[in-house]
Design goal:
The protein is of the alpha+beta class. It contains 6 helices and 10 strands; from the N terminus they run H-E-H-E-E-E-E-E-E-E-H-H-H-H-E-E. The strands form 3 sheets. Strands 1-6-7-5 form a 4-stranded antiparallel sheet. Strands 2-3-4-8 form a 4-stranded antiparallel sheet, with helices on one face. The two termini are 28 Å apart. It binds a DNA duplex through helix 5.
Amino acid sequence: MPELPEVETVRRGLEPVLVGRRIARVDLARDGLRFPFPKSFAARLEGTTVTGLSRRAKYLIASLSSGESWLIHLGMTGRFTIVAPDGRPQGLGEFYYETAADAAARGPHDHVVIDLDGGWRLIYADPRRFGIMDLIVSGNEGRHVLLDHLGIEPLGNAMNAENLAMAFAGKKAPLKAALSDQKIIAGLGNIYVCEALFRAGLSPLKPASSLVTKAGAPRVGLERLVQAIRAVLTEALAAGGSTLRDYAGADGVAGQFQQRFDVYDREGSPCKRAGCGGTVRRHVQAGRSTFYCPRCQR
DNA sequence: ATAGAGACCTGTGTGC
DNA sequence: TGCACACAGGTCTCTA
C-alpha cells in the first residue's frame, strides 16, 4: 500500500502520541505478519519509552529507551489507528482520533494492540499481513537486513541526477522497473513511479540506461525525472498521501492526492497534458500495472 | 548479474 | 444471487 508519502503521513500522525510515552502493554493477536515477530516481542516493547520516530524509505523506526529500535513496514494494507483516552485528544489541533467507544470492538485484522501510558492506544490492523514488525538490537542503530540495501532517499540530498546516472548506467531494465527498485531509490511504489514518469514525459518502457550518456553523465530527461520525483512526492505529502481503498493517516484522515493523479488508475481516460490529446494506457510490466500516455511519454 | 515470475494474504469489483 | 476471476499501495525468493 503505502509508498513514501503515506508512510511519512503516518509517521507525522503517530509522532505526537507515541514519542515520549511509555509502552504499558502489547497484545499480539498472532505470531507474526509477513515474518514471525521476534523472540519475546511484546515483553521487549513493554516498559520502554519511545524516544523518537523516524522513517527510512517505507519503513518506520521507533527508538526505544531500552536501546532497541522497533522496525515497522506497513506492507500493502497496514494501518495504525490511534485511540484517545477519552475520545477528546488535547492539543493536537486538527487531528481526528477514533474514540474508545468506536474502537471497542476488535476487528478481525487488528493484529497488534499497544497500550501507552495515559490511556492512549495504538491499533495496528493489516488484512493482507504483508506488513513487518521487528526489533533492532542495541548498538545496531539503523542497521537491519531489510534496511541495509536500501538506495537513495528520494527527498534527500543524495537524490540528484549524478547519483541516478551512476545507478542507471548500463541498466537495461525499463525505467518503471529501475524506479521501483528499492536498491536504487527507496520509497517509490507503483503510483508515484507512474506519476513521476508522466510528469517527466518519459516512457516507462525505455531502458534506464537511455537517460545516461556514454560518458556516464545524466541526460536532460534524467534531470527532468529527478525534479518530477521530488515534485510529485512533495505534493503528495502536502495532500496527506493517496487513499485508494483502506489507507488513512494515523489520525484517521484519508489522503487526498488520488484526486490529482495524472495517469494512475486512469486507463482509457484522456491524457491531462495540455494539447496532447492522447489516451492513458495500462500496460503490465513485471506483473504490475503501469499507467502512461504513449503519446507524450517517449 | 539481473529481469521476470511466483509467492505470500485478504478483500473488492466485474462479468457471466 | 452465486461463482470465478482479475486485481490491489510491497518485496522477498527463486528461476531463467
